Amino acid sequence: MANVVLPTGVDTAQGHSRVLPGLLEGRPDLGPVFMNSLPVERIESADVSNVLLFLASDDARYVTGIAMPVDAGSTIR
């Protein structure tokens, strides 16, 4: 079994796509797909790292086969 982490957009160089604005310009209906429920545009890389550290720790020794969203609420939209 494996655990997976499912982040929303992360504030990294890769997270600042030059392609996305052009895509949204041509397809404005896609905009809501990239929105978070919490009032943040992107999360910090430390937010993802902290979840990974938890999953690798003894505190998560019985956590198996989950998909852990770190997505500022985007999956509840």
Question: Could you give the topology of this structure?
Answer:
Elements: E1 4-7, H1 19-26, H2 45-56, E2 67-70
Parallel strand pairs: 1-2
Organism: Saccharopolyspora shandongensis
Pfam family, one: adh_short_C2
Protein name: Enoyl-(Acyl carrier protein) reductase
Task: Tell me about this structure.
This protein is of the alpha+beta class. It has one domain. Helix content is 26%, strand content 10%. The protein is built from 2 helices and 2 strands. It has helices at residues 19-26, 45-56, and strands at residues 4-7, 67-70. Strands 1-2 form a two-stranded parallel sheet. It is elongated, with a radius of gyration of 15 Å. It starts with a strand and ends in a 7-residue tail after the last strand. The relative contact order is 0.31. The mean pLDDT is 88. InterPro entries: NAD(P)-bd_dom_sf (IPR036291), SDR_fam (IPR002347). It comes from Saccharopolyspora shandongensis. This is Enoyl-(Acyl carrier protein) reductase.
What's a quick, concise take on this entry?
The chain has 77 residues and is an alpha+beta fold.
